[in-house]
Amino acid sequence: MFRDLLSSRWFQGGFAFFVLCIGGSLLYSWHVHRTTEAEFGKRPPPVVSIENKSSTNTAPVDFQTEGVVNTPEENTDTPMSDETEAETIDETEFADLADAFLPDDAVSADALDASKMSRFGLGPYPEIPKEWNFSPNYWETVDSIERELTRRVTIKMHNEGTRSKYGSVGVSPTGQVIALERGSVLVEYEIDENGEKRIWSVLAHPDDLSAGIYTRDSQIPSNLKIVTSDEIAFDAYEYLGLPK
pTM to 2 decimals? Predict the structure, then answer.
């Protein structure tokens, strides 16, 4: 019976038709694949953008300090306005500073490299001398224009020999440099429920003012100068000679 089935013309014809269908499908698939590659070419691999994952400072003013006493009322981390300070950063993070700016009229070919240009449009980065053994990705860790301005200001102060007299240096979102001299206390005020002015934030060098809660000017030692950000702030762009 099986031999009769194999010798049947219907079976032979059906099997031949099946083989032709499979062969035709494979040939068509190969033709389409080859034609598509010829017309469009191979697509390049997708570009993967690696985002800088370094931690960001959410405080309005990015301070570079030698270690400061920051004592808002009840030790809370209340953010401050454009002219005020909040989170502090230990100066050891930025201990290695450059001692020269790259002259505007002597920009080298290397300075035109994207890795040597400010991502915030501030131009070439200040040149970092090799003797400082600086990390190659020093500027790559900058995650805001305020932080880059702070580092540029600190470098220029270092070059001018004035950085050492400041306990902390920061730049606000409005581009104002807040440089606090040793022997001074930066305070910010608020009006309490009784309509009286009281201190709600204090910034000072730890050698000048011990940690604590200060709500009145009278609680701050008389040998320290009390200042506000409005009194000591100056324009970062003007100081650095940069266009806004």
Answer: 0.54
